[in-house]
Description:
Blueprint: H1 5-18, H2 26-56, H3 61-68, H4 73-86, H5 95-103, H6 108-120, H7 123-133, H8 135-159, H9 185-220, H10 223-230, H11 237-245, H12 252-255, H13 257-264, H14 269-281, H15 284-290, H16 296-320
Helix pairs in contact: 1-2, 2-7, 2-9, 4-6, 4-8, 5-6, 6-8, 6-14, 7-8, 8-16, 9-13, 11-14, 13-14, 14-16
Amino acid sequence: MSIFYPVKLLADWLTYSVFLITPKTLLADAVNFFIYDTIKIFILLSVIIFAVSIIRSYLPPEKIRGILSHKSKYTGNVIASLLGIITPFCSCSAIPLFLGFIQAGVPLGTTFSFLVASPMINEVALVLFLGMFGWKIALMYIVSGLIISVLSGMIIGKMKVENLVEPFVYQNTINGNVDLPTMTGKERFIYARDYTLDILKKVWIYILIGIGIGAWIHGYVPANFLAQYAGSGKWYAVPLAVLVGIPLYSNAAGVIPLVSTLTEKGVSVGTTLAFMMSVTALSLPEFMILKKVMKLRLIFIFAGIVAVGITFTGYLFNLILK
């Protein structure tokens, strides 16, 4: 029995006894899906974000910069990507840290690993994948995201493209370690509580919108419609999903609730994962901000490397999960 079985009973009670919706209708399926997924996701988010924020209390930005600035370039790529998991910034809000890392002396390739991993792999995405698909696919999602971010940073580091970063970025370089005050256990709890509430306040509307769209697709879109145009048998489905995702901008909370629904309708997990990664890691607003700190050529290099990695991951997931 699933740990969310009580949530399923509550969703059934609200749908059929409180709202008095006729069972086994399109509306009933959509409403029941919306209630169940909303409650389940918010429970998971509250628990996981609180736990991750406790970890983050030990790793403020200054300490992260200090850690990365003293690592070899390849070790730094791995550590930067791992830190990206527990520093869940969107692609645009991660850019100020990108500048801070460069000014702290962190290698450019290492910094790019963080820039890719932070929006692509985060606790919100992990929670949603865990709740919708189970730990195996959630683990595959983390591993694939880490590989993309590590390899992207390593490739960019090998290309020696520091000259494509605007000169002002390297000004005011920080040297030495930064001494930080130590938080007490009570302060960490308060920090984690406040951070969890802050994140929930920021993402709740995106979650509801994403689940709402997913519920509508779940209840009303014919099963063969999406499968016909983006089904597992379409060779172009993965690169198309990546291209469609680039002009869009959302965080994982708004995109991932659609993944389960699209998969149920016949779209392969790899295709929907590629779409989600494209939306979160590659976006026009991100590129517009990056244009202020780097030349257009470096933006194309960055986007191209990440897009290839995402596309490969999409095909790999589709192959493994046939």
